[in-house]
Structure formats: structure tokens, C-alpha cells
Design a protein that fits this description.
The structure holds three protein chains of three kinds. By secondary structure, chain B is of the alpha+beta class. Chain B has seven helices and eleven strands. In chain B, the strands form five sheets. Chain B has a three-stranded mixed β-sheet. Chain B has a two-stranded antiparallel ribbon with strand order 2-5. A two-stranded antiparallel ribbon of chain B has the order 3-4. In chain B, strand 6 and strand 7 form a beta hairpin. By secondary structure, chain C is an alpha/beta fold. Among the domains of chain C are: 174 residues, Dimethylsulfoxide Reductase, domain 2 (3-Layer(aba) Sandwich); 122 residues, Barwin-like endoglucanases, CATH 2.40.40.20. The chains are: A mainly alpha, B alpha+beta, C alpha/beta.
């Protein structure tokens, strides 16, 4: 993505800047999720028999059963991993509810006017069309990522809930058996649609060249300033303002002379540390 | 392992005296919870008008069908048909959803109130595997319940149906190949053992009609979309300087 | 005792299942253990929870769910009895058990078991007891019994118990103590059958043989409801092979459903039917002339006596068509020797039931069913003689029996007695006042007619002791309850059947403080100063003394017996031979004994009473899932037969506005009960039927309490003057919608 308002010099300076996008906790949670999806998806598809519900393949059904020894242990491990997945996520939410989850929710799930406009323009860009229409500036997460957050949050909620229903089905009275009966297709539907989102997420995050910085940031936690400026300008500017405010405060405290740094001054308020990640 | 077994039951209602030893034996063998049972002795109150009265009792258990609908309905394979014909439930693979209970045209399945799992007659496979008879058959005083290998012409079941008029509990609509042969002609009691046509539960319909197609379309569309974008990306090439990736 | 399981383990864990299935360590069903068979259940993996047939050990013993005493193989897992199987070695079970036998383990694991000795603290019938030690309970009972003996004489103690293997020791207790008053339930059951056959053949309980039989007349013997495993199987086998069964019963029972002919005979008229068969057989000379001339006495008198009992006459009385009676007589005779009339079992129906039984005994004699003495089908195989501990003779008995045997009921053997007569004696104090009642394994509160009379008799006694395994209705009213070990927890004396001798042995240790009858009788006997009648150290010592002759002759030991469950004496052993133990040494068609006592020498027709305009005969009978009054609280049997209903014909119900399932009030002169009605075409319109055994009033039986109604609330006491049998069908009731 190019922006003609930037001089080459500015680009180079921006490229040298390093911004922290993800905390370690964030990174670990992400890769934990990846690991769990890698365990749960193949086993989940393996459980569901093709001959009964044609959403898998008999070869896969058999392979999974061979690997795990039996249907029962396949289901058992799918349930164990699922519960670990649910437990860790739930733990994260409850432990870091104020610090992480609310920030997460506000930075990743609140859509503003720019986001809506972005959503209208971005698909054309991806198809290589209407390139002349500029994208509105985005915060730490663009509108597409925000939409994906909805999918992931809602999908995970239903996957987890229905999964727990099935794992603990023997405690559900027979008069409530319909709950188990509905849990199965809902589990399947939630996982399937979320997985459809995951396909986009993986492509956009790992393969799509413009977002390569984002991909590396899932390992290092860091992005360069150019990427941040081009893709998440609102966030970049806010971070710079935060940094400037912090530096000003530092100098005031230690009586050092002021020195402007940011390419564009900002009056954004904020006392948070410049190292603070944009959100979870 | 030369010959494959084909297990099944032969029931002679004429020899059933409604003593219910089979019901108790089954309960003792499997500790079935109170109020639930794996096998039955069906009875229609005496037929006819005094003093021309008749009465038949019809022992019933899982028919271990050749084409079992319960197996088709089980999403996980927790219920399955063994090579020798017995339809069994792997309790640990069962999540007690009850789709098999609904699918069985003979209503011989139920959800065990204690285990929360699907439950039914398994022909005491553990006894059969040791060369014994199922608990109900082993203690049937009247000799109404027989069990054995239909592939063995010398088995009690093969001998019992030889040259006999047999009645299988099937209808033109429902024929799951029940492996129970009744030795007396159907009478009013047989109504209770006639199979019922299948009615899918709303969740099953939702699953088949909606959940699976939606997921297939969603996953397929996104995959194809991203694959397309990837191809475009390859065709277009990358600009390492432009994208700020370096 | 704390490590003993109190309930059956509802679900055993996987590990145990695998161990039991022999799969532990194979990795077949261990979760996540690696590659295995997809269908691990094919290898016997975890499919369902642990079934009873996986046993750590299998113990051969004897059933006691009824008096048939089938052989049992008890399967035990971790000290819990998990399953009972019929023992193929035992001729009474032939590898099969009925519903009751299959459910036997739940008798042991009944949550309402009495597991400690109890002494009453509240009013009689309040059900308030305190737990006491065996010493306290036995000391109290012995002290009271000794005081009764001292103050009123030993005859003031009544003892009652029922047909069981420890009966000889019970008799030691009662006769050693010196009381003549011995109550059994037999007068409520088969007194008529026994006395009639004693007087005809000199045989107490005629054996039955089905092999080859083509024509069988069952006079109310509902073998498919009142199940005796091997006999029931034999009859069904004959029916399946085409035997013709004629079944007489006012009610369409399980046997009626399987019989070739169901004859809904008018209640109380069976003897007319049989007499008419005899009439036809003699008139048409269909009987076995050779046998009659060789081995019977009194034929001429019989022939003359039955002259008037024509099929036409019987048809009017029995409401069975004349032609049918005629035909059956001919068919019966034509099928000789493969035809017999079953002597019946519970024959306590009308005060003319003795004549019915005599007529059946004679009918079979005319068939020549005993071509020679040694080959009479009614003679049981001689059984093996056993040793027993030494014991002194009993003290002489001076007092008369309260039940009128023999001073009022001359032909009733003392070991049968006339149970229902006891209460009048207790209540009236005639011929003398009783003060105590020791009841072992019996429930007179339910079994005797007129329950209110039994209750009143209890209240009049200073001591009521009940020995049982559950808090039965009589125990509920007792002063002391002695907890007996169930039949799966104790030894009993050996049981010879033919040339085999069977052992009842404990499958598990007795639960709680329960003890065997052998132990309880000995303990009590010693406290009563009767130790000489109980000369054994413990149960095993008793059994060793019984075995002694065979240990000496064949080297049989108790330890061997525990493994095998029985031993068989080799061919060539001659047991005591049965013979026709009658005064004439022959089959007595006419009985001088009866004549001399002032009764009819040959069976005669006596009109039984009939119900009034709006009344019904109240029939009683059996179901295959319960034994008398003792099994209704058994969880498994409760499951298959939880209650009783009043059978009624729809036509009579319609007249009263009663619909199926309605609650009705049944009233007799003795009392009234409320019960659900079941309308059926399978009963004579002039009859109603109630399965006995329900309507328990002991709150100590939580499953059975309040279920159904008790016919003992309705039955009046009528005693057959010859056999002493209670006439259970002679009570007439009215039925109205509640």
C-alpha cells in the first residue's frame, strides 16, 4: 500500500520505527488458539461419521479412529482438548477482564464511521478494483479484523457451550435431551462458519503480502512504523501522541529540553505508556 | 474365523407363559435402572368374549436388524453393528443424544437414566462370546426365547425355523431386516411389535437440511475466494518496498 | 462389617470391566493408549457397564424364593452377588430360574432388610423399635419363654414356621420346649391334597411325571402362574409337543391361555366334574381293570357311589356341557397310560376340597397309573439318608393342640396343622390360653384370613417374636425381631433330591448382624436349657455330622461339597422304599379309615355355598413373579409386578358403572378394601379375582407398603372338616365404585 503524501525519507524513518502491537500474553493466546484448532478441527471432523452426516469422509473417520484407538478415545480427547481450550480462554477473560478483555472488546469490536466506509471499499481493493478510492484510516485493527472478532467471539461461545453440553451430556436429564440433540448441529455449524472465517484470517494474516508485518508481529509482538502508519494510522497517531505525552512528562520531571519526534504532531491526550499495546 | 456368524433370535409366543423371568434376568445382568427395561413381554388383554378367550404374550427385545436405523442415526458410531450381526453400543462413545432412540422403528432403545447413555438389548454379547446364551434366553422357562447363529444349520434358531411358517415384524414401509423370527402368526399382540415409520427430529432435520449445506457453502466460498486472491497475488507479484513489509 | 457393600454397585468402573473381561493390559480399551481396533467392543471392550455374568467366583447353592428349591449358581464380583443362574446339575432347576429365582439377590440387598435384632419400644403396630445386641434379644426372648412355661405350661407358647430346610431344628425348639402348638401355612395351601392322598395312597405329596403324557387334566393347578421351574418346563414341553391339556379354572390364567381347553368351571364344583369322569369311566368300563382288581380296595362301593354322578348331573352343577364331560372322560381313558389328572397344589378352596382331591386321587387310580408298586408315578424317587447330631427324645406333651389336631381334625398330620384355627383359640382362651407366639419365616398377618382377627390375637399375647430377613407385616407387630441371614448368606441343612444331596451355602458373609436359623435356634435353645437338641458347634459342624455316613462310605467332605454344590451316591444305593402306606396296603378307593371316623368312605358331592344376588366369588391364585407374601418388596420383582388389581368381568362392571382402571370398594363380611379394577373377559362373570400378597401394612417395606389390597382383609375363616384346609374361595364379596 502506498501513500503519496509520504516522502521517501519519511518512509525510511517510519520503517525504522518499532511499535509494540502485541503483548506476550496476546501472542501466546493466539498461538494457543491455533494449536487447539489444529487439534480440535481434525478430530471433530473425524468424529462425525460421513455415512450418517455427510460432512466428513469415511477415510478420515477411520484414520482418526486408528490414530486414537477407538471412537471413544477420539471423542474423549476431543473433549479434553476442547475443555482445555475453553478453560484457558475463560481464564483469560476472567483474570484479565478489565485490563485485557475490555480493551480487546473496545479496540477490536467497536465499529466507527471509518470502519464502515473501509468495509465498503476494501473488498474492491482486494479484487484490484477502485484502487483510486482511498481507504479511511484505521485503528489498531481494521474493520475486517473487527468483523472477524465478532465471528470468533460468537462462534467460540457457541462451540464452547455446545461442546460442554456434549461432554457433560450424561448429567442432562432425558426430558432435556433436545438440548444435546441441538448442541450437535450448532456445534458443527459454529465451528464450520468460524472455520470459514479462519480461512480468510489465515490468508490475510499469513499470505497476503500487505499484512506480512501483522504475521510477524504474531511472533515478535512488534510492527514497524511504516506498516502502522499505512494500515493503522489512527492507532499510529494515537501511539505517537501517547509517546510524546510520556516523553514530555519525562522531560518535565527531569528538566530535559523538548524535542519533537513524530512526523505529524498530535494533541491526542493520554497518559498511558507508549509501550502499551494497542489492545489485546 | 472361517465362518461368519449371523446371530439372531427366534421367538415362539406360544411358549411364553408371561413368567417374566427374562425381564428379571436381564435386569440383574445389566442392573437396568428402575422403571426402564431392555426387553419386554408384550401382552394384549385377553382377546375374545368369555368363555372363548385367547391370550398371547410376545417377548420382545432388540431385533439386531440387518439394516439398523439406529446405527444410521448415530453421529459418532457409538452404536454399531458387529460382524456377527449384533448391534451394540459403545457407552463411552455415546453422548446420550437419543437420536438412535428416536430412529429405532421398534422403540427398543432408551436413554439409561443412570448412565445418561443410550441403552438397549445387546444380546449379552459377553456371554455369547463365551459360548453362553443371553441371560433372558438362558432362563426362559417356557422355551419361548431362542438365540443362535442362523448361519449354522444345527443351531437352535436354525432348527426352530426349519420348515416353519415364520413371521418377521416388518411392514411394506419399514423393513430394517429384523433378526427376530416369530414362530406364531401375527395376532393382535403383534401390533405392539410392528415397526413404526421413521420421523426425524427437528435437530436432525436442521443438521442435514441447514447446518451441513451452510457450512459447506461458507467454507467452500471462503476457501475459493482466498484461493482466487492468492492466485491474483501470484500473478501480480509482490513489491517488498511498497508494502512496507521490509 | 463396614467394608461390606450395602447396595449393589450400580455401575462398575472401566478398569474393573476390563479386568473382568480379561482385557486389562491389552490396551484395547484404555483411553488414548494408542492404535487399537476401531470397534474395540468387538474384542469385548467397554460396551455398557459391567454385566453380572463377569464373576470373580461362582458359588453353587440352593434357591429359597419358593419351596421348590432350585439349584443356583451365584456369581460374585468383589464380594457382591451380581447374578444368579439356574444350576443345570439340579433336577429342580435344570439350569433355569424363574423370575423370583433370578431376583433372589435383591432379597439379600433389599434396602429394607432387618440387619440388627430389634426390640419394640412403641405400641404394637407403631413400628418403633430399638436396635439391640443378639445377647439382649435372645436373653429377653428366652427369659419370657421360660416364664410362660413356668406360669402357664409349655403349651402356652405357639410356634409357627413354614416348609424350609432348617425345619428339623425348629421342631427341636418347639418339641424340646414341650409345646404341641405347631403352626404351618399348609392348611392355607395343600392340606386337602395331602390328606386325600394319604388316605388313598398313603403318600403325602404325589410326584408328577410328564414324560410321554398326552392328556393332562389340571384342576386349577396354574403351573404357568404358580411356577415350579422343572415341572412348569415339563408341562410346557409336553404342550409344545402336542399334549392335550384340560384346564379347569373360573379364571383365565396363564395356564388357561396355553391349555387346549379352558373350562371356566363354576367355583367349588370341581369334585362334581371329577366324579362325573369317574362315573363315565366306570359305566363305560374305561378304567384299568387289571390294576383296579390287583391293587385297589372298595371299587364296588365306588361304582355304586358314583352311579348318580352322570355328566348330565355334573353339567348342571359345573356349568360345563354334558358332552364335554363325556368326551373328556373318554379321551382321558383312551390316552391311558399317557394321561393323568394333576393332584393340584394349593387346594384350599372350598370346604368340599377334600372330596375333590379324593376324587382326583381315585380318578388316577382308575387310570392304573401305578402298574406296580415300585413304578407308581406318584412315588418320588427314594432320597439319600443323612446323619444328624445326636439328640434326646422330646418331653411328653400333655396338652391338646390349639388348632384342633387331632381332636377336632383327625386326619390332619400334626406337621401340617390347621393354622387358621389358632387365632380363635388365642382369642377365646379355649381350651386354654396361649401367651406367646414364636414365628419364623412366616407372615400370618398377611397369610391368614381375617387379618383383623390375627391382629387381635397378637394383641392378646404377652410375647410375639418374629424371625425374618425383612420387616414383614407380622414383624411390624412383634415385640422382638430376630434378623435371619438371607438364603444367599447362610448354611442350611442338606437337601437330598433323589440320589443327589445338595448344599445351601453362604455366597457372601451375612449382612449386618443377621444370622442363620441354625445359629439362632441353637442360641435360643441353649438359653432355654435345650442345648442337647442342638449338639453342633456351628453350621459347618452340623453339616459335617449330616455328611458323616457318606464321609465314611464315599469320602465326601464338606469342602468338596462347597465346591461342587452337591454329591451323588452311586447306583446300587437303596434308600428307604416307599410303599402304599394305607391300612389295606392297597390304593383305597373306599376308605375304611374315613368311614370309621364318621366320614364318607368314598368321595361325595357336597353343595358348596353360593354367593347371593349381588355377590361374587372372591378367587385367589398365584402370579409367577411373587411367592406368597414375602417378595413384594423385592426391587426386581416389584418392577415386574408392583401391585394387584381386582379382575372383574365387563358385564358386571357395566351394571355397576365401573370402568377399567376405576377404584372400587370390595366388601365381605370380614372387611373391605379399595383397589383398582381390571376388566377382563377372562373371568366368570360371577367371580372376581385378587392376587394375594399385596396390601402390606408394614411401613418397614417401603416398596410394597400400601400397594394394592390384601385379600386377607376380606377372607372369612372356613375350615374343611376333614383336611383342615382353609376354604379360600368361599368368601363372597360385593363390589362398588368408589
Amino acid at each position: 500500500m502506498s501513500d503519496e503524501t509520504l516522502t521517501l525519507e519519511q518512509r525510511k524513518r517510519l520503517q525504522e520505527q518499532v511499535l509494540v502491537k502485541h503483548h506476550l500474553a496476546n501472542i501466546l493466546t493466539h498461538w494457543f488458539n491455533v494449536a487447539m484448532w489444529l487439534l480440535l478441527l481434525p478430530t471433530g471432523i473425524g468424529i462425525l461419521l460421513e455415512k450418517t452426516y455427510p460432512a466428513s469422509s469415511t477415510a478420515w473417520n477411520d484414520l482418526m479412529r486408528q490414530i486414537f484407538g477407538s471412537t471413544a478415545s477420539l471423542i474423549y480427547w476431543h473433549g479434553v482438548w476442547g475443555q482445555i481450550w475453553i478453560a484457558v480462554l475463560t481464564f483469560n477473560i476472567f483474570v484479565g477482564f478489565r485490563k485485557y478483555f475490555l480493551t480487546f472488546a473496545s479496540t477490536r469490536m467497536l465499529l466507527d464511521k471509518d470502519d464502515l466506509r473501509w468495509l465498503m471499499i476494501k473488498p474492491w481493493h482486494m479484487l484490484g478494483l477502485r484502487k483510486h478510492v482511498p481507504l479511511p484510516p484505521q485503528d489498531a485493527y481494521n474493520a475486517g479484523q473487527k468483523l472477524y472478532s465478532y465471528l470468533v467471539v460468537i462462534g467460540s461461545f457457541w462451540i464452547g457451550l455446545t461442546g460442554m453440553i456434549m461432554v457433560y451430556s450424561e448429567h442432562i436429564p432425558t426430558s432435556w435431551q433436545w438440548v444435546i440433540q441441538w448442541a450437535m448441529p450448532i456445534h458443527f455449524l459454529s465451528a464450520g462458519i468460524t472455520f470459514a472465517g479462519v480461512i480468510i484470517h489465515v490468508y490475510m494474516g499469513a499470505i497476503f503480502p500487505e499484512e506480512r508485518q501483522a504475521f510477524f508481529s504474531m511472533f515478535t509482538g512488534k510492527v514497524n512504523g511504516l506498516y502502522a502508519y499505512l494500515h493503522h494510522r489512527k492507532w499510529y497517531l494515537r501511539k505517537m501522541a501517547e509517546k510524546a505525552a510520556w516523553e514530555a512528562e519525562y522531560r518535565r520531571r527531569y528538566r530535559e529540553p523538548a524535542q519533537a519526534e513524530a512526523p505529524q504532531a498530535s494533541t491526542a491526550p493520554g497518559t498511558a505508556s507508549a509501550d502499551a499495546p494497542a489492545g489485546d | 474365523m472361517a465362518d461368519i456368524k449371523k446371530y439372531g433370535f427366534v421367538i415362539d409366543p406360544r411358549r411364553c407363559i408371561d413368567c417374566r423371568a427374562c425381564l428379571v434376568a436381564c435386569r440383574a445382568e445389566w442392573n437396568t435402572p428402575p422403571g426402564q427395561t431392555r426387553i419386554w413381554v408384550h401382552t394384549d388383554g385377553p382377546q375374545g368374549i368369555f368363555p372363548a378367550v385367547t391370550q398371547t404374550w410376545v417377548p420382545v427385545q432388540c431385533h439386531h436388524c440387518e439394516d439398523p436405523w439406529c446405527v444410521d442415526a448415530c453421529p459418532t458410531g457409538a452404536t454399531f453393528k458387529r460382524e456377527d450381526g449384533l448391534v451394540l453400543i459403545d457407552e463411552e462413545a455415546c453422548i446420550g443424544c437419543g437420536l438412535c432412540v428416536n430412529a429405532c422403528p421398534y422403540q427398543v432403545r432408551f436413554r439409561n437414566e443412570v448412565t445418561g447413555k443410550a441403552d438397549k438389548c445387546n444380546a449379552c454379547f459377553h456371554r455369547v462370546d463365551r459360548g453362553e446364551l443371553p441371560a433372558c434366553v438362558a432362563t426362559c422357562i417356557g422355551g419361548a426365547r431362542l438365540f443362535g447363529d442362523f448361519n449354522d444349520p444345527e443351531s437352535p434358531v436354525s432348527r426352530a425355523i426349519k420348515d416353519q411358517v415364520v413371521y418377521r415384524p416388518i411392514t411394506p414401509e419399514v423393513d430394517t431386516g429384523p433378526m427376530t423370527y416369530y414362530l406364531s402368526p401375527p395376532d393382535a399382540s403383534a401390533v405392539q411389535v410392528s415397526p413404526q415409520p421413521r420421523k426425524d427430529l427437528p435437530a436432525e432435520v436442521f443438521w442435514r437440511k441447514w447446518a451441513i449445506p451452510i457450512v459447506k457453502v461458507a467454507v467452500g466460498a471462503t476457501f475459493l475466494g482466498q484461493a482466487g486472491a492468492f492466485i491474483l497475488q501470484l500473478l501480480r507479484g509482490e513489491n517488498e518496498y511498497e508494502d512496507g513489509a521490509v | 462389617m463396614s467394608d461390606q457393600p450395602t447396595e449393589r454397585v450400580p455401575r462398575l468402573n472401566r478398569r474393573k470391566f476390563l479386568q473382568a473381561a480379561g482385557l486389562a493390559g491389552t490396551g484395547v480399551a484404555i483411553v488414548g493408549s494408542g492404535v487399537g481396533d476401531i470397534r474395540r467392543a468387538e474384542a469385548g471392550g467397554s460396551v455398557g457397564h459391567l454385566p453380572g455374568s463377569y464373576a470373580d467366583k461362582i458359588v453353587p447353592t440352593l434357591c429359597e424364593m419358593c419351596v421348590w428349591r432350585c439349584g443356583v449358581r451365584a456369581k460374585v464380583i468383589d464380594g457382591v452377588i451380581e447374578k444368579l443362574e439356574g444350576n443345570p446339575d439340579h433336577p429342580h432347576s435344570e439350569g433355569y430360574l424363574c423370575a423370583r429365582g433370578q431376583a433372589g439377590l435383591m432379597m439379600t440387598y433389599d434396602e429394607d432388610r432387618v440387619l440388627e435384632p430389634l426390640m419394640r419400644v412403641g405400641e404394637r403396630g407403631s413400628g418403633r423399635f430399638r436396635k439391640v445386641s443378639w445377647d439382649e434379644a435372645l436373653d429377653y426372648v428366652a427369659d419370657k419363654m421360660l416364664k410362660i412355661k413356668e406360669n402357664f405350661g409349655p403349651e402356652a407358647m405357639v410356634f409357627s414356621s413354614t416348609h424350609n430346610l432348617s425345619q428339623p431344628l425348629f421342631e427341636n425348639l418347639l418339641y424340646g420346649y414341650g409345646s404341641p402348638n405347631y403352626g404351618t401355612q399348609r392348611s392355607l395351601c395343600f392340606n386337602a391334597m395331602v390328606t386325600a392322598h394319604l388316605l388313598t395312597y398313603g403318600i403325602e405329596e404325589p410326584a408328577r411325571r410328564y414324560e410321554g403324557m398326552n392328556y393332562i387334566i389340571l384342576t386349577g393347578r396354574n403351573l404357568f402362574g404358580g411356577i415350579s421351574t422343572s415341572e412348569t418346563r415339563a408341562l410346557m414341553q409336553r404342550i409344545a409337543e402336542g399334549a392335550h391339556v384340560v384346564y379347569l379354572d373360573p379364571r383365565f390364567s396363564e395356564t388357561a391361555a396355553k391349555a387346549a381347553e379352558w373350562l371356566p368351571i363354576k367355583p367349588g364344583t370341581d369334585s362334581a366334574f371329577i366324579l362325573a369322569l369317574i362315573h363315565v369311566m366306570i359305566r363305560d368300563e374305561l378304567y384299568d381293570k387289571w390294576f383296579v382288581s390287583q391293587y385297589t380296595v372298595g371299587f364296588d362301593e365306588l361304582a355304586e357311589g358314583v352311579q348318580d354322578y352322570t355328566p348330565a348331573w355334573a353339567a348342571r352343577i359345573t356349568e360345563i356341557p354334558e358332552a364335554t364331560i363325556y368326551r373328556i372322560a373318554h379321551e382321558f381313558a383312551e390316552n391311558r397310560p399317557n394321561a393323568f389328572a394333576h393332584p393340584g397344589w394349593r387346594t384350599s378352596n372350598f370346604i368340599n376340597s377334600f372330596h375333590t382331591e379324593r376324587a382326583i386321587a381315585i380318578l388316577n387310580a382308575l387310570q392304573g397309573l401305578c402298574p406296580q408298586q415300585g413304578d407308581c408315578m406318584f412315588l418320588s424317587e427314594a432320597s439319600v439318608e443323612l446323619g444328624k447330631p445326636p439328640q434326646p427324645g422330646y418331653p411328653p406333651i400333655r396338652a391338646a393342640r390349639l388348632d384342633g389336631v387331632p381332636w377336632k381334625y383327625k386326619f390332619v398330620p400334626p406337621k401340617l396343622g390347621v393354622f387358621q384355627e389358632l387365632r380363635d383359640a388365642i382369642l377365646s382362651g379355649e381350651p386354654y390360653q396361649a401367651h406367646g407366639w414364636f414365628i419364623a419365616r412366616q407372615n400370618p398377618m398377611m397369610s391368614l384370613p381375617e387379618r383383623q382377627k390375627t391382629r387381635a390375637a397378637f394383641q392378646k399375647l404377652g410375647l410375639v417374636v418374629v424371625m425374618d430377613i425383612i420387616m414383614n407385616d407380622s414383624a411390624w407387630y412383634a415385640d422382638v425381631v430376630l434378623p435371619e441371614a438371607s438364603y444367599l448368606e447362610r448354611y442350611d441343612p442338606l437337601h437330598p433330591v433323589g440320589r443327589r444331596v445338595f448344599l445351601r451355602q453362604p455366597v457372601i458373609e451375612p449382612r449386618g448382624q443377621s444370622r442363620s436359623a441354625l445359629w439362632i435356634y441353637k442360641q435360643l435353645g441353649e438359653r432355654l436349657g435345650l442345648g442337647d437338641y442342638f449338639q453342633y458347634e456351628d453350621e459347618e459342624d452340623y453339616l459335617r455330622q449330616q455328611l458323616k455316613p457318606w464321609t465314611e462310605r464315599l469320602g465326601i467332605t464338606l469342602d468338596q461339597l462347597k465346591q461342587t454344590g452337591y454329591f451323588e451316591v452311586p447306583d446300587g444305593y437303596e434308600g428307604p422304599t416307599y410303599r402304599w402306606d394305607t391300612p389295606s396296603g392297597k390304593v383305597e378307593l373306599a376308605s375304611e379309615t374315613l368311614r370309621n371316623a364318621g366320614y364318607d368312605a368314598i368321595p361325595r358331592w357336597y353343595d358348596p355355598p353360593e354367593p347371593g344376588e349381588n355377590e361374587f366369588y372372591l378367587l385367589t391364585g398365584k402370579v409367577g413373579q411373587h411367592t406368597q407374601f414375602a417378595t413384594q418388596n423385592n426391587a426386581y420383582l416389584h418392577e415386574v409386578r408392583p401391585t394387584n388389581q381386582l379382575w372383574m368381568h365387563p358385564s358386571k362392571a357395566a351394571e355397576r358403572g365401573i370402568a377399567n382402571g376405576d377404584r372400587v370398594r370390595v366388601t365381605s363380611p370380614a372387611g373391605s378394601v379399595e383397589i383398582e379394577v381390571w376388566l377382563t373377559e377372562g373371568i366368570r362373570p360371577d367371580c372376581v379375582y385378587l392376587t394375594p400378597g399385596f396390601g402390606h401394612e408394614s411401613r418397614g417395606l417401603r416398596k410394597a407398603f400400601g400397594r394394592g389390597a390384601a385379600d386377607s382383609d376380606l377372607h372369612l375363616t372356613f375350615t374343611d372338616p376333614i383336611s383342615g384346609g382353609q376354604a379360600l374361595t368361599q368368601t363372597f364379596v360385593t363390589v362398588e365404585k368408589v
